[in-house]
Amino acid sequence: MRIIILLLVTLYCCGACKEIHDHKGKTPLVEVDGNFLYKEDLMSVLPVGLSKDDSTLFVEHYIRSWVEDILLYEKAENNIPDNVEVDKLVENYRKALIMHTYQQELINQKLTNDIPEQEVAVYYQENKDLFKLEHPLIKGLFIKVPLTAPQLNNVRRWYKSEQQDMIDNLEKYSFQNAVKYKYFYDKWVPVTDILDMIPLDIESPEEYVNQHRQVELKDTAFYYFLNITDYRGVGDEKPFEFARAEVKDLLVNQRSVSFMEQVKSDLYQRAVDKKKIIYNY
């Protein structure tokens, strides 16, 4: 691929030295009617890890596509009967894009950060039925230990209990013996995060852990112990920590319309006060 790019650069330098262009530090590879494809731009889109042959094919295809796009654009530009209408559409789109970008930035600055956390919590409490889970969540504890780990009978007893002394024993034990230890009695986690760590190869693993709150599994190297203290399935209410961002976005959206109307009204009034608006009728 480097050989192809080097060859392109060499050919360009030999054939295009008649006219000097300011390429702003970039290395031109191909020119079509004053349009340049630069080495740096090509390298930025070249996928990582391609073989030499695949890199060559990618470079050839990319350059061909770039040239074809330039030629098609020039052909279209010369054959559109009403460029004024196109320019008008482009300008309208540009204005709409600038206004939208500004409004979003203004809303983020003035609304998103100004909604009190208490208001978010109150709205959630009053509208829990609006926020439903799309994926199950669980609370519990998980530990993974080697088959050769000591005190396995104690582990079987400790992992099933929520008593603080049992949890303390298991936590101390995990420092020296566990390959993985995860305590989440106090927070909700996606059930898939835990299922990814255990060898539960069945058709409906999420339903299985809902029906079997204490799970012990093993493979050729490890024991896996999982104790589930709480489960929320698809369609159940989202816990606040999972719904918080959604609630806040909803509150922002509810206020954004009236907020932007006020912004536009203020701009209009300032223009009136400064006599910037001139009516010719």
Question: Which percent range fits the helix content?
Answer: 40-55%
Oligomer: single chain
Structural class of the secondary structure composition?
A: alpha+beta
The general outline is flat
Tell me the radius of gyration.
Answer: 32 Å
N- to C-terminal separation? Answer: 67 Å
Instruction: Tell me the major beta sheet.
Output: 4 strands, antiparallel
Number of strands: 6
Structure keywords:
single chain; 3 domains; four-stranded antiparallel sheet; 281 residues; alpha+beta
Describe the model.
The chain folds into three domains: 2-79, no CATH class; 112-128 and 238-273; 135-232. Strand 5 (214-218) and strand 6 form a beta hairpin. The protein has helices at residues 2-15, 39-45, 52-79, 83-110, 117-126, 152-158, 164-177, 191-195, 205-211, 240-273; strands spanning 28-32, 35-38, 137-146, 180-190, 214-218, 222-232. A four-stranded antiparallel β-sheet has the order 4-3-6-5. Helix 5 crosses helix 10. The model has no long low-confidence stretch (mean pLDDT 88). By secondary structure, the protein is α+β, with helices and mostly antiparallel strands. It is built from ten helices and six strands; from the N terminus they run H-E-E-H-H-H-H-E-H-H-E-H-H-E-E-H. It comes from Bacteroides faecalis. This is Peptidyl-prolyl cis-trans isomerase.
